[in-house]
Amino acid sequence: MNIAFVEALKQYHFQCFVFHDVDLVPEDDRNMYSCPQQPRHMSVAIDEMGYKLAYQELVGGVLNMRTEHFQRVNGYSNLYWGWGAEDDDMAYRIMHVGLKITRPPETTARYKMAKHTKRKPSDWRKRWLFGRMWQASLLVGWMAGEFVGWLAGGLLSG
Fold this sequence. Notes:
By secondary structure, the chain is α+β, with helices and mostly antiparallel strands. It has a single domain (2-151), classed as Alpha-Beta Complex (Spore Coat Polysaccharide Biosynthesis Protein SpsA, Chain A). It has 4 helices and 6 strands; from the N terminus they run αβββββααβα. It has helices at residues 2-11, 67-72, 86-96, 124-144, and strands spanning 16-20, 24-26, 40-41, 45-46, 62-66, 110-113.
């Protein structure tokens, strides 16, 4: 997604970007694809998930961000392969730089997931370990007087 962001900005000065899973179809046209003041997780209620938000840090599915916010969080991490965990990493990046994850009401932020063969998600232990890595990097950064651990593997990873 980082390369798409970089290449798109070469074509035009976009004010915001929507990172959208291709298998999600919006059910309600009141869920506005506009340019939000804060990062907006738009896919709050997905039919395959019983139209419930699985956890507060979830930003997967459809995420709408201003260009400067995506740059501020250093984009998506390039350290994840396969399906899962990269969205959790993004949520932590958003919160770490002092931005707030906003959401439209679940009555309008509804999506249908197109039928398809799903890939196996990342092991839950990877997600648990990931959360602990974030805590450790923040502690180490705090002790060293800097916060650099979260920069790994994003837009600036060359």
